[in-house]
């Protein structure tokens, strides 16, 4: 894949990720080959692999658009499983009424992506605490970070 800054026609990263997902594949490591070229590794998804909330949202979009293939469907997690925020995270958000008010106004997908990111490191207390604290601080400041909506592709 060429970097967008190369000036040459290139396959956008999100297009490659979505195409791979439709066929049951996932992106992983990337390697810089030159100043303007990089190799992005794609491989078949393992059964029962973990799915980020962002990838679940991408899968829902691809299904809605009729682009998911049988191979893609075979790798999907339960997309209808309820999203639950753990009590300790809710307590941290409710500790400050202003933070809780800000939190209640955040887009659902943003919340799912951020909370999923925090939960992904729950087994590492330092990382968990660091991510949760950053999310609370950002929420208090009215700051949303990351490309959680794929440049407007996702709601």
Condensed summary:
This protein has 155 residues and is mainly alpha-helical. 46% of the residues lie in helices and 10% in strands.
How many β-strand runs? 2
Name the quaternary structure. Answer: single chain
Biggest beta sheet attributes: 2 strands, antiparallel
Which series of helices and strands comes N to C? HEEHHHHHH
With strands numbered from the N-terminus, the spatial order across the biggest sheet is 1-2
Strand content: 5-15%
Mean pLDDT: 93
The count of domains is 2
| Poorly predicted runs | none
Count helical runs.
7
| Structural class category | mainly alpha
Radius of gyration: 18 Å
Helix content: 40-55%
Q: What features would you describe in this structure?
A:
With 155 residues, the chain is mainly alpha-helical. It folds into two domains: 4-75, no CATH class; 87-140, no CATH class. It is built from seven helices and two strands; from the N terminus they run αββαααααα. The chain has helices spanning 13-22, 53-64, 70-75, 87-94, 97-104, 108-119, 125-140, and strands at residues 25-32, 38-44. It has a two-stranded antiparallel ribbon with strand order 1-2. It starts with 12 loop residues before the first helix and ends in a 15-residue tail after the last helix. The mean pLDDT is 93.
